[in-house]
Amino acid sequence: MRECEYSQISTRSSTPMETPYKKRTPKKRKWQLFPGRNKFYCDGRIMMAKQTGVFYLTLVLILATCGLFFTFDCPFLALQLTPVIPVIGGVLFLFVLGSLLRTSFSDPGVLPRATPDEAADLERQIDVANGTTGYRPPPRTKEVVINGQTVKLKYCFTCKIFRPPRASHCSLCDNCVERFDHHCPWVGNCVGRRNYRFFYMFILSLSFLTIFIFSFVITHIILESHRSGFLSALKESPASVLEVVVCFFSVWSIVGLSGFHTYLISSNQTTNEDIKGSWSSKRGKDNYNPYSYGNIVTNCCAALCGPLPPSLIDRRGFIQSGVPQIAPPANGIPMYGSTQSQQSHMVSESENERQPPPLSSSSKAPMVHHHFLTPEEMPSPPGMLPCGSPMGHSPMGHSPTVQAGFYNPASQDSLHEDSVRGLVKLSSV
Ligand SMILES: [Zn+2]
Ligand SMILES: [Zn+2]
């Protein structure tokens, strides 16, 4: 009994000696070793592009113009007209500022880069697909069929992944971004899948705010000029003159941009696709937009009210020792690209069918449905999306809409999520 007690004491005494020493080793978060050219603040909570000078100009312009309006115009307008004017102005101002900061400070939908192991695995798969002659065709592309439309997936040599549909590499931020719209220096961030709706809300509300301030400052000057003459009214309120000038020169571009993005949203296009002229606006044409729901209202709802996907880069997660430096995705969602472990069987298509994908972190994610698009499953007639394939996930299964080759709204989000999770399996590379 006594011996037993002694042994317990010796065990206890050794453990606390080691524990505090281990706790002292500083843990690094993933944002600290993030491979893209981004800036992080507040321990990784805020993420922006590297160059943020124009963003601060945007912020100063909005704050200064609104500051002048609330200081010099609102007291007069509230007295002479109604106190509702400063209230509406205040609400609009807060909405503009909130949507701007949400756009600027968030992850636009950056796709994690492949780890060295995953990149090597993908290289091997490409080698096998191209034969063992050592010759690699320069453009590394895959083709997927989305609603009857063939879409090319390009290989990103920087991120070492096949980009999902609609993703593009931002050269300024050096990241592949999901549903890449454009890089906006005014908001100091890329505009992509995760912040597009906030960007749209920002420019739309800013249009209203600019028109609102412009109209009421003019009203203020007119009311003043009735009392003391036009020139003396201008002399008495130089701040109002400055506001009118700023609003007059900015309103055209802001309203024009809002109109352009309203058109893009209604047709479910990105700026990137529109500039490249990827899709024709008419559905009957050969290059119709496969992402459009064919209905303006549904397109708008999908862009503004659809579920917001989680960030894939897990920038505040801790780096585990012995794990490759590129951050594994958040929430157990695997990385995009056939580089991930689920697709390590890509070499043999029949093998893929027989064997379940190897266990990985993704097995914890309840919503991940593994089903690869194999040549056997390729639709016939061409373009039809097979039920259960990554391109045709739908709660309705073989719904008539899917069979007819139309876009199934319910399937679009899961379609994109699945493609991001690297479930695109093709017969050829
Ligand atoms: Zn890339
Ligand atoms: Zn960017």
UniProtKB/TrEMBL annotation:
The keyword Membrane applies. Its EC number is 2.3.1.225. This is Palmitoyltransferase. Residues 7-17, 337-349 have a biased composition (Polar residues). GO terms for molecular function: protein-cysteine S-palmitoyltransferase activity. The chain crosses the membrane at residues 54-72, 78-101, 198-222, 242-266. It is a multi-pass membrane protein.
